[in-house]
Amino acid sequence: MATIISNRRVAEGIYVMHAEGRFEAKQGQFFMVRGWDNYPLLSRPLSVYDQDERGVKFLYKVAGEGTRMLSRMQAGDDVTLLGPLGNGFPAAEGRTALIGGGIGIAPLFYAARHLEQADLYLGYSVEVYEEHEFRSLGHPVEIDLGGIVLDRANFDDYDTIFICGPEPMLRAAQMKSAMSSGRAQVYVSLENRMACGIGACLVCSVGCENGRKKACVDGPVFRAGEVVFA
Amino acid sequence: MIETTLDTACHIGEVTFKNPVVMASGTFGFGKEYGKLYDLSKLGGVSGKGITLHPKSGNSGIRVHETPSGMLNSVGLENPGVQAFLDEECAFWETLDTVRIVNLGGGTIQDYVDGARLIDDDSQKRQSEGRKAVDLVELNISCPNVKAGGMAYGIKTCIAREVVREVRAATTLPLMVKLSPNAEDIADMARMCEEEGAEAVSLINTLSGMKIDVRKRRSVFENLYAGLSGPAVKPIALRMVHQVCQRVNIPVVGMGGISSAEDMIEFIMAGAEAVQVGTYNFVNGQAGADLAEGLERFMLEEGIRSLNEIRGIL
């Protein structure tokens, strides 16, 4: 059990929850989160937005019943956290870009905070949020509203690129990576549905060039080239 | 003083379970993952991820969809194959202080038989070396996700009979047949298993279900249908377990939506020897430990010393 320190709305349907506890989450890892007993059945996989001495933060979008229930929780309420889980982002080498689409910007904040250099590209469809927080990290931040954020980054300018966003964006990133010079090591963070979160149930399976992998324990971060999008 | 007199043991043939709490196939991997969360020796048993003779990559596309009080899954029996299971998982299973159940599926009858033989040969080899990794075979004739096998075998008794007979002849290990709720007559199916020499039956596997994405105007699942599990199916499962218990004399292992000690007690009162817990593992990562403890607490509260006092009282 973790007590909620704050749970604030930052845009329409977008919230930041700060939950108390000492965790040692690495960049790109996630927690299975639930703010209820048995119903809904499944916990929600939320990536680590930030972590400080008081606890862990999640930037999340209300997408269904579970996240709606989370959004209604208040400071002092308890959430159940299983984690940190997954492999997260590898060590970034050389010039680095972080590209996020929509709620996919969430894991990039904590990753950016640990990088000496990073160019941030944040894409939004309707409303910009957490811009101030991202800018406070001191890295260059490029914001795209309503366009295609991927188009703003030249992959050949970078050695390492981390991308998180909806599947069409990741698919496009994979294509863009394949057509680039190959200088950049491109990684994507997947948002597959999960049930157990620990590698037992196989529902988050990801088709990869060398067979199937589990988004929860083998990922959620994969080399862009290794994922076979359906 | 009171604790020491509690008798929670269950039996299938020669196999003794320390308590009726068995983790259900497909929800527990081969135990390693949950073994990091709690001590698996608290469990009566573990039924491993279903395996088939040849490795299977399972279904592509979305594999899970939550429903009110349940979930649909379409994993499609992704597994490393029997040989990889024996080579890579059984060393860990040898160390487990709980009943180890291998769940065997198949595409053709020959696949079932060959898979059963491989497991049996391995088991005899280990036994000759004083080791043991598998206590019981659970035969999956009911997985609704596999186009070539599963569903077809588990629906008609006369077709299932052939698989059970062949696998019975192919293994010296105790055999438990896992039944599908999609069977035409599940009590008849259970009776057939008893006639063919199975030591036990387990039920129910998932109910065939469906979910349509109305914006995309297609099924959420590439395989069209998926298997429903969780508390939503519990009343149906309980009724079926009760019906089967009226028809057979072999032990019945009940499952379907179990999420509390009281749920387990219901199945035992309906006649089950033991129970399996599946979807609840996703609700509570400590499910097995909590349920084993909850069962003892319930027995103490109700003054039950042995589960035999309440088994099959309905």
From TrEMBL, chain A:
The keyword Protein biosynthesis does not apply. Gene3D superfamilies: Dihydroorotate dehydrogenase, electron transfer subunit, Nucleotide-binding domain of ferredoxin-NADP reductase (FNR) module, Translation factors. Keywords: 2Fe-2S, Electron transport, FAD, Flavoprotein, Iron, Iron-sulfur, Metal-binding, Transport. Pfam families: DHODB_Fe-S_bind. InterPro entries: Cyt_c3_hydrogenase_gsu, Dihydroorotate_DH_ele_sf, Dihydroorotate_DH_Fe-S-bd, FAD-bd_FR_type, FNR_nucleotide-bd, PyrK_electron_transfer, Riboflavin_synthase-like_b-brl. Its cofactor is [2Fe-2S] cluster. Signal peptide: none annotated. Transmembrane segments: none annotated. Residues 1-91 form the FAD-binding FR-type domain. Belongs to the PyrK family. This is Dihydroorotate dehydrogenase. The gene is pyrK.
Automatic annotation (TrEMBL), chain B:
Its cofactor is FMN. Belongs to the dihydroorotate dehydrogenase family. Type 1 subfamily. It catalyses: (S)-dihydroorotate + A = orotate + AH2. InterPro entries: Aldolase_TIM, DHO_dehydrogenase, DHOD_1B, Dihydroorotate_DH_1, Dihydroorotate_DH_1_2, Dihydroorotate_DH_cat, Dihydroorotate_DH_I. It is found in: Cytoplasm. The gene is pyrD. Its EC number is 1.3.-.-. Residues 12-299 form the Dihydroorotate dehydrogenase catalytic domain. It is an enzyme of class 1 (oxidoreductase). Keywords: Cytoplasm, Flavoprotein, FMN, Oxidoreductase, Pyrimidine biosynthesis. This is Dihydroorotate dehydrogenase. Binds 1 FMN per subunit. It holds the Pfam family DHO_dh. Pathway: Pyrimidine metabolism; UMP biosynthesis via de novo pathway. Catalyzes the conversion of dihydroorotate to orotate. PANTHER family: DIHYDROOROTATE DEHYDROGENASE (FUMARATE), DIHYDROOROTATE DEHYDROGENASE (QUINONE), MITOCHONDRIAL-RELATED. The active site is at residue 143. FMN binds at residues 25, 49-50, 103, 140, 178, 204, 230, 256-257, 278-279. Substrate binds at residues 49, 73-77, 140, 205-206. SUPFAM superfamilies: FMN-linked oxidoreductases (SSF51395).
